[in-house]
Amino acid sequence: MYLNMISLVLMMLFSLISVAFLTLLERKILGYLQIRKGPMKVGFMGLFQPFSDAVKLFTKELIFPSKVNLCPYMFSPLSMLIISLIVWLVFPYWYVVLSWKYSLMFMFVILSMSVYSIMISGWSSNSIYSMLGCVRAIAQSISYEVSFFLLFLCLMFSISSLSIIDFTYFQYKIWFIVILFPVFIMLFVSFLAELNRTPFDFSEGESELVSGFNIEFGSFSFAFIFLGEYLSILFSSLILILLFMGSISFNIDFYLKFMFMSFFIIVVRGTLPRYRYDKLMNLCWKTYLGCILMLIIFYLSLFYL
């Protein structure tokens, strides 16, 4: 019991530290993609820049807009961070048993709750820009959750289990990215849409919506939203590796795969323009949904054979 608690606390602590260095990696990669250096001043090659930003954010004055609904306004950023931390409970340890039989279902329950944080933060600010960004983000997340769940259903049929650690037992000989490549591509795009990342960052359309649902947030409340968003990016990279790229042996191979997936999500941000909103909805409801239903029939037939 105590070992479980210590493992949980350490995992949450180090995942928050890894968010700091993920932001540094993103700023460096985007800098080199735009032919500039990125952060260079604080520490060696800008290594301590994330900690400098954290100190700046947490020491800034918290300003409340005049018509804000105070309790939900203060609660929503914290709830976003807590949800992003709780979802890491499904991480399958080898020796400390925290991965249970229905860990995939638990992951879905927690991920679907993240919509409520966006909704509360957009509504409680009492600003038309926040509300517009919140409505667009919610419509996008709810639309992609349908195809998201059906894609995982294809994977569940492939291994006949709801446990994440069972995926590692089936990939000793061949990775699922080879035999389930269409599912991997669709799941990767669905994760980008769920995370509101480029090219699907419609809640943060700078030209028309300024900064989406979080426009009225500053100081540590903005830092919580920021941490929650980047924790979700790390978690999505982890899930894609566990489901499609082999076992969870904690060697250099695992961390290279983890870094490559996070790197790929950042490179997508630096290279692709923003998608059109109606095309995103068409992609979900008219393309992905039909493809996934066909794939479910195909994998189900293979399972019964």
TrEMBL record:
<feature type="transmembrane region" description="Helical">
    <location>
        <begin position="222"/>
        <end position="248"/>
    </location>
</feature>
<keyword id="KW-0812">Transmembrane</keyword>
<keyword id="KW-0496">Mitochondrion</keyword>
<feature type="transmembrane region" description="Helical">
    <location>
        <begin position="146"/>
        <end position="168"/>
    </location>
</feature>
<feature type="transmembrane region" description="Helical">
    <location>
        <begin position="254"/>
        <end position="272"/>
    </location>
</feature>
<dbReference type="GO" id="GO:0003954">
    <property type="term" value="F:NADH dehydrogenase activity"/>
</dbReference>
<keyword id="KW-0999">Mitochondrion inner membrane</keyword>
<keyword id="KW-0813">Transport</keyword>
<dbReference type="GO" id="GO:0009060">
    <property type="term" value="P:aerobic respiration"/>
</dbReference>
<comment type="function">
    <text>Core subunit of the mitochondrial membrane respiratory chain NADH dehydrogenase (Complex I) that is believed to belong to the minimal assembly required for catalysis. Complex I functions in the transfer of electrons from NADH to the respiratory chain. The immediate electron acceptor for the enzyme is believed to be ubiquinone.</text>
</comment>
<keyword id="KW-0520">NAD</keyword>
<feature type="transmembrane region" description="Helical">
    <location>
        <begin position="70"/>
        <end position="96"/>
    </location>
</feature>
<dbReference type="Pfam" id="PF00146">
    <property type="entry name" value="NADHdh"/>
</dbReference>
<dbReference type="InterPro" id="IPR001694">
    <property type="entry name" value="NADH_UbQ_OxRdtase_su1/FPO"/>
</dbReference>
<feature type="transmembrane region" description="Helical">
    <location>
        <begin position="6"/>
        <end position="25"/>
    </location>
</feature>
<protein>
    <recommendedName>
        <fullName>NADH-ubiquinone oxidoreductase chain 1</fullName>
        <ecNumber>7.1.1.2</ecNumber>
    </recommendedName>
</protein>
<dbReference type="GO" id="GO:0005743">
    <property type="term" value="C:mitochondrial inner membrane"/>
</dbReference>
<keyword id="KW-0830">Ubiquinone</keyword>
<dbReference type="GO" id="GO:0008137">
    <property type="term" value="F:NADH dehydrogenase (ubiquinone) activity"/>
</dbReference>
<comment type="similarity">
    <text>Belongs to the complex I subunit 1 family.</text>
</comment>
<feature type="transmembrane region" description="Helical">
    <location>
        <begin position="284"/>
        <end position="304"/>
    </location>
</feature>
<keyword id="KW-0472">Membrane</keyword>
<feature type="transmembrane region" description="Helical">
    <location>
        <begin position="102"/>
        <end position="125"/>
    </location>
</feature>
<keyword id="KW-1133">Transmembrane helix</keyword>
<dbReference type="InterPro" id="IPR018086">
    <property type="entry name" value="NADH_UbQ_OxRdtase_su1_CS"/>
</dbReference>
<feature type="transmembrane region" description="Helical">
    <location>
        <begin position="174"/>
        <end position="193"/>
    </location>
</feature>
